[in-house]
Amino acid sequence: MHSSVKTFLSSLTSILTPGNADAAPKAPDPHAMVMIQKSMLRLLGEKGARLNPQLEHRIRYAQNIESLWFLRADLAQALCLQIDETNALQAVADLTPLFEGNIPKTQLQAYQRGQRRSRY
């Protein structure tokens, strides 16, 4: 089996395995959701919201922080239409610290492993 497939399956298993002590954040900051939403909407900007009204709506009315985590890919795609890809991806990556302690550590770790690999 290819090593990246093994890594993916290992990450997926650790996320889905019940009883994993690191799988869920302990007590998310009650203001984190609003702060993350505002940061994502600020990145999208007025022009981006006009071009992507569904994305703006999905960010604004997300049910939880984990939903916002998964909307980062859509946000990056929308930003790529407005600015160059490198800056769009960096802008979305800069949101990562806002999610720390608010989503399962395994999701952050999987993302960070992917970031390290893509730099080389």
Write the layout of secondary structure elements.
Layout: H1 3-16, H2 32-51, H3 53-60, H4 65-80, H5 85-93, H6 96-99, H7 105-119
Helix pairs in contact: 2-3, 2-4, 4-5
List keywords for this structure.
120 residues; globular
Written overview of the protein:
With 120 residues, the chain is mainly alpha-helical. It has one domain. Helices cover 72% and strands 0% of the residues. The protein contains seven helices and no strands. The two termini are 22 Å apart.
In short:
The protein is mainly alpha-helical and 120 residues long.
How much beta, percentage-wise?
under 5%
Distance between the termini: 22 Å
The level of helicity is over 70%
Supply the helix-strand structural class: mainly alpha
Topology as H/E string? HHHHHHH
Write down the overall mean pLDDT.
81
The Rg value, from CA coordinates, equals 15 Å
**Low-confidence residue ranges:** 1-25
| Whole-number count of domains | 1
The gross shape turns out to be globular
Give me the number of helical elements: 7
Largest sheet: none
Number-wise, the strands total: 0
